[in-house]
Amino acid sequence: MSGLLSPKPVSYLQQPTPSYNPYVRGLGPYSETPPLSNAPLAHPVPHQPVGQQFMNNNIRADAVREDGKIYSLVIELLDPAMREGALLELSKKREQYDDLALVLWHSFGIMPALLQEIVSVYPLLSPPNLTAHVSNRVCNALALLQCVASHSETRQLFLNAHIPLFLYPFLNTTSKTRPFEYLRLTSLGVIGALVKQNDNNTVIHFLLSTEIIPLCLRIMETGSELSKTVAIFIVQKILLDETGLTYICHTYERFYAVGTVLSNMVNQLVETQAVRLLKHVVRCYLRLSDNLRYVRHPFLTLTFNVRHLVHEKLCVLAFPSLYVTRPSVSS
Questions:
Q1: Which of 87, 207, 257, 324 could be stapled to 212 by a disulfide with Cβ–Cβ 3.0 to 4.6 Å?
Q2: Residue ranges in the chain modelled with pLDDT below 70
Q3: What fold characterizes domain 59-214?
Q4: What pTM does this model have?
């Protein structure tokens, strides 16, 4: 009987059977519930209201749809048959979509397509055969170029490609018809967007290497009031830069050319009463007077004479802070 197992001790059989607890299920050595810590429980994060979450989802969906529309319009610029409509729609949305300049610049074939729109108008400049329809179309392309020129991440790339030079034939036109005036004004807007930025020293250096000053001086004499305002704004920005002031005052011929145009504008302001133009004219004169070489030149001394500076009423409108009305003393 040596092969048989010995019976278990009686003491084992006499142990009490443990009561069944359905909440405690032993899993043996495989798991053991860790003791709860005494640290206070964190407050649960309140759930976002269903309405607010639904609204946020709608905003995201609208943004995705708007991005999709922009991308579709940009792709349509590559198709000559669909380009005109895409130019019109994108020119309307350029101020609503902040990254449009980046999309235009970094998309394949878009910038050549915009330049093709500009170059295609050159044969209509001389003799002047530009129609209003063609002018509106090319101005929509120029509006997109202005968007690229004003963006901080694409402005330097815009200059490196010498794209402003493609606009100079438009600035060199002399026809006073509305299509040509609109074309010059929109082209000036692109240059104005370049110089409007605070860190424009690189832009000024680039413009001084071109013929922008003679082109702006011509428009300041013969253009419409709005074109004159943008043109003199560009000249004023160039003068405010130390390099620009030194360039204009480097030779008497350059100084004389700028001074003559400013003097003619002062004479015209007596009739036109254009306060906005007067502000820019006076600021240009003040900046020219910072150059000690010509500070006593007749252009600068005569301009601030009462006879030359338009009458006092116009000056009050332009610079109200310089004219303080004395209060009346009651008797």
A1: 207
A2: 1-63, 292, 294-331
A3: Leucine-rich Repeat Variant (1.25.10)
A4: 0.75
